[in-house]
Write a structure and sequence with these properties.
- This protein has one domain.
- Strands 1-2 form a two-stranded parallel sheet.
- Helix 1 links the parallel strand 1 and strand 2.
- It is globular and about 35 Å long.
- The model has no long low-confidence stretch (mean pLDDT 96).
- It is of the alpha+beta class.
- The longest helix is centred in the middle third of the chain and has 15 residues.
- It is built from one helix and two strands, in the order E-H-E.
């Protein structure tokens, strides 16, 4: 088994990200990097200032 590529997104409000935006972001990353058909993992983390 191979783990899917992981992407971490830093944001002020990680718990406020709707699922629809997560799917939109996932699709954009896959198209932009040529990863169509490959599952990816996206996590959101609170940005420290």
């Amino acid at each position: 088994d191979t783990m899917p590529p992981r992407f971490k997104v830093f944001t002020n409000f990680p718990n406020a990200i709707p699922d629809t935006y997560t799917r939109y972001l996932s699709t954009g990353i896959k198209k932009g990097l040529g990863l169509e058909g490959i599952p990816i993992a996206i996590s959101f983390q609170k940005r420290n200032r």
